[in-house]
Design a protein that fits this description.
The complex is a heterodimer of chains A (479) and B (260). Chain A has helices spanning 4-7, 33-42, 47-61, 101-109, 114-121, 139-145, 152-158, 160-166, 177-185, 426-434, 439-450, 452-455, 460-473; strands at 24-26, 85-87, 124-129, 132-136, 148-151, 190-194, 204-209, 220-225, 230-238, 246-248, 251-256, 261-269, 281-291, 297-304, 309-312, 315-318, 324-333, 338-347, 353-362, 367-376, 384-393, 399-408, 414-423. With 479 residues, chain A is α/β, with parallel strands linked by helices. Chain A has one domain. In chain A, strands 5, 6, 8, 10, 11, 13, 15, 16, 18, 20 and 22 form an 11-stranded mixed sheet that branches. In chain A, strands 4-3-7-9-12-14-17-19-21-23 form a 10-stranded mixed sheet. In chain A, strands 1-2 form a two-stranded antiparallel ribbon. In chain A, a hairpin with a 2-residue loop joins strand 3 (124-129) and strand 4. In chain A, helix 10 crosses helix 11. Chain A is globular, with a radius of gyration of 21 Å. Chain B has helices spanning 51-59, 83-88, 106-120, 128-141, 146-150, 159-173, 189-201, 218-221, 241-257; strands spanning 13-22, 25-35, 40-44, 65-73, 76-77, 91-94, 101-105, 152-153, 177-181, 208-213, 226-231, 234-239. In chain B, strand 9 (177-181), helix 7 (189-201) and strand 10 (208-213) form a beta-alpha-beta unit. Classes of the chains: A alpha/beta (479), B alpha/beta (260). Chain A binds chain B through residues 1-2, 4-5, 425-428, 430-439, 441, 445-446, 448-453, and chain B through 59-63, 82-84, 86-88, 92-93, 95, 98-105, 108-109, 111-113, 115-117, 120, 128, 152-153, 169, 173.
Chain lengths: 479, 260
């Protein structure tokens, strides 16, 4: 059901533009081996992990920022940033009562009352504030089921064998400039392990929030679904307003073993910068899932409305025979936002299948690019892919670009690609307005219709928020 | 009947000396029309006579230059109001060509519209169950089933389905003034009868209806109080129900020739 109309009420400016005042325990500015060691020491990490970080750091020094994406930004001074900032008193609260009340108020402003969520939604929340997890709920219940859901720092301490086995196994430390940087300096993130045969009965969710000034965010998320298991993971993000650009270079690795399924949903609502392109988050993220097992499935759903620049290609490596990869994406860009996003579907196993549905919406002077690779290797007999990339333009000063790469090395493969570009017509706007909808609601309604195929893939509690965000982020785009 | 008794004392719609051009080309050249609450007026005219332009100007569509005249709705000059403001005040336009909105369910759209107008009136939004009950009641009369309402708005609808859906929207939005722009075009006899039944159900002392049509056959089913013939951007003749029959018998050319 569309709630487009209520979506645009009373939200003229970026709603979450506030900063919580909390003292931080911060590493010195800049990046060198000492910074890496500081982070590792702060977290009490084992030697192997420090070594891994340092290998990543040394490799990073030999790399250059990628320039192939259709995005432009001034050079990033990696020495002019803080790589570690944690709220004080990180002893690890045992319950919400121990959490800094200031922090809890922040979440309330964000509309994430943890207590209510516990009771009402049945969602376990691993809330990341700055770089350290401060509140984890439902852990006990999940633990009884054998599900491990904790911060990755905790997993390093409690389940080192799992972390060591899988960390970097999908996105190696040498993968790309930003993933390599993340490998060197990641501070926290989430860890999930779902045991064999278990269908995780609740949606797992994490809210990220960038707060301390000039703190790069380097989240690291690792999700492992053992044989025959299922898990749905929700990631939602908002950030307070800042003038300086903030770099966010997360890495997410998913591993699905035989007959396992992982559904990973994201609603990304970081500060996009102001109407003149000042400020905003640089969201340079590496997300990749490996369908290691037979008949395994990984499904990415993303709604990207925020960030000044989005550089993100949630991908699936379909190794297991009969495995399935899906990518459902809505990317909204307004004003001077830039998005270069898409996916990679790498078909290795026999009879592997993938579906790509991408909806790009551009307004203002924004540039929105879909970039996707479908690769079928020689051994992937009977592989199938269907891709559909639709672009919607609002106004005549924005851009939409579709860049599909298709590489097929097996003649039994079927690969289909469809692409459309359209505009919201004056007729549609007038029709909606004649029925009483404001111009903003009319646009939100039409755009939500355009995105429906993707939005309906989201879990219910996210679908409503996502619809609202789509409307909110296009405000001011009709006039 | 619902409605504000005070506002129904004066005319529902008064158009005085309305001149409208599109891209500098004059389309309407001095329209005068007064419609009282409870009345049904038919405006007939040949293609290009300015019928749809009049409908669009009343609803506030952009792209029309009003060079002279005024339009008063419930005593208030509405030409400066945005389309959604007019709609919320109870002015409804039934489209000649209802617009497709892919991905937006007809029911979802209808609910958004109904709630937008309720909100403007200071009424509480209808919850999903109440809304559904109301829609089903109105839809039955128009022989519209739930399946149609779950489909994206007007996408792949037949001509008859589109027009019946327009009347369904009207019946839920409960406008004070409904302007129906060639609602009969493209309908077969059965569909015409269903649409007419829906329109007739909405006739009432607090509501006025302006039927814009090319053919008089619609008027066999919806009996108008007044009939006006529009030609060359002017109302060239007004009369009662019998004028429509005259048009049918003699054609527009003969009537336009007798214009004052």
């Amino acid at each position: 059901m569309s709630t487009a109309r209520e979506s645009v009420e009373a939200l003229d400016d970026y709603k979450y533009g506030f900063v919580t005042e909390i003292a931080t325990d911060t590493a010195p500015k800049g990046l060198d081996e000492a910074t890496v060691a500081f982070i590792s020491a702060k977290k009490g990490e084992p030697e192997w992990l420090l070594e891994w970080r340092l290998r990543a750091y040394r490799h990073w020094l030999t790399m250059r920022e990628p320039t192939w994406a259709r995005v432009h930004h001034p050079p990033i001074d990696y020495q002019d940033a803080y790589y570690y900032a944690a709220p004080k008193a990180t002893e690890g609260p045992k319950s919400l009562d121990e959490v800094d009340p200031e922090l809890l108020r922040t979440y309330e402003k964000l509309g994430i009352p943890l207590r209510e969520q516990e009771v009402l939604a049945g969602v376990a929340v691993d809330a990341v504030f700055d770089s350290v997890s401060v509140a984890t709920t439902f852990k006990d219940k999940l633990r009884d089921l054998g599900v491990i859901f904790c911060s990755i720092s905790e997993a390093v301490q409690e389940h080192p064998e799992l972390v060591r086995r899988y960390l970097g196994s999908v996105v190696p430390y040498s993968d790309n400039f930003f993933a390599t940087l993340n490998s060197a300096v990641f501070t926290d993130g989430s860890f999930v392990y779902v045991p064999e045969g278990l269908r995780c009965p609740m949606e797992l969710s994490t809210y990220f929030r960038i707060n301390a000034a000039k703190t790069g965010q380097f989240e690291r998320t690792l999700i492992i679904a053992d044989k025959g298991s299922y898990v749905s993971y929700l990631e939602g993000c908002t950030a307070p307003m800042r003038d300086e650009n903030q770099l966010h270079a997360a890495v997410v690795e998913l591993i699905a073993l035989d007959d396992a399924e992982i559904k990973y949903s994201t609603v990304q609502n970081w500060y996009p910068g102001d109407a003149d392109g000042k400020g905003g988050i640089y969201n340079f993220v590496t997300k990749r899932g490996a369908c290691r097992g037979r008949n395994s499935k990984i499904s990415w759903t993303q709604v990207e409305t925020g960030s000044a620049i989005t550089w993100k290609y949630p991908s699936c490596i379909l190794e297991g025979d009969g495995s399935v990869g899906e990518f459902y994406s809505v990317a909204v860009t307004n004003n001077l936002q830039q998005a270069d996003t898409g996916t990679k579907m790498i078909h290795i196993g026999k009879g592997t299948r993938s579906t790509i549905i991408s909806k790009g919406i551009s307004a203002g002077r924004a540039q929105n690019t879909y970039r996707g690779l479908v690769r079928v290797v020689g051994q992937a007999a009977g592989a199938r892919n269907y891709s559909q990339c639709d672009s919607l333009l609002l106004g005549d000063t924005c851009g939409a670009h579709t860049v599909p790469y298709i590489e097929v090395a097996n003649r039994t493969a079927h690969v289909e690609h469809e692409a459309t570009t359209s505009r919201i017509s004056d007729d549609q706007l007038f029709y909606c307005r004649q029925r009483g909808l404001s111009p903003e609601d009319a646009v939100a309604t039409i755009v939500n219709g355009f995105c429906r195929e993707v939005l309906q893939k989201l879990p219910m509690e996210f679908a409503v928020e996502a619809q609202k965000l789509v409307g909110i982020s296009l405000e001011g785009s009709v006039g | 009947m619902t409605g504000n008794a005070e506002s129904t004392k004066g005319p529902m719609l008064e158009i005085h000396d309305l001149h409208v051009a599109v891209g500098g080309k004059p389309i309407l050249n001095g329209i005068d029309l007064t419609v009282a609450p409870g009345e049904v007026h038919a405006i007939m005219g040949p293609n290009g006579s300015g019928k749809s332009t009049l409908a669009h100007v009343l609803a506030g569509r952009e792209g029309y230059e009003v060079s002279r005249g005024e339009v008063r709705y419930l005593g208030r000059d509405i030409l400066a109001l945005a389309p959604e403001e007019r709609a919320r005040e109870g002015l409804f336009l039934g489209f000649q060509y209802p617009i497709e909105i892919p991905g937006v369910g007809a029911m979802t759209f209808l609910r958004a519209a109904v709630n937008a107008i309720r909100k403007h009136k200071g009424e509480a939004e209808l919850d999903a169950m109440d809304f559904l009950a109301r829609v089903r009641e109105k839809a039955r009369l128009l022989e519209i089933d739930d399946a149609l309402l779950r489909r994206p708005l007007n996408v792949g609808f037949s001509g008859g389905e589109k027009k019946r859906n327009e009347i369904l929207q009207m019946s839920l939005l409960e406008p004070r003034l409904a302007v129906l722009d060639e609602t009969d075009s493209g309908l077969d006899v059965d569909a015409l009868r269903i649409v007419a039944r829906g329109v007739n159900a909405l006739r009432g002392p607090d509501r006025a209806i302006v039927l814009i049509t090319h053919y008089q056959s619609l008027l066999d089913y919806i009996e108008p109080d007044r009939v006006h013939v529009l030609a060359g951007g002017r109302i060239v003749k007004s009369g009662d129900r019998t004028l429509a029959l005259e048009v049918e018998a003699e054609g527009y050319t003969a009537l336009a020739g007798t214009a004052a």
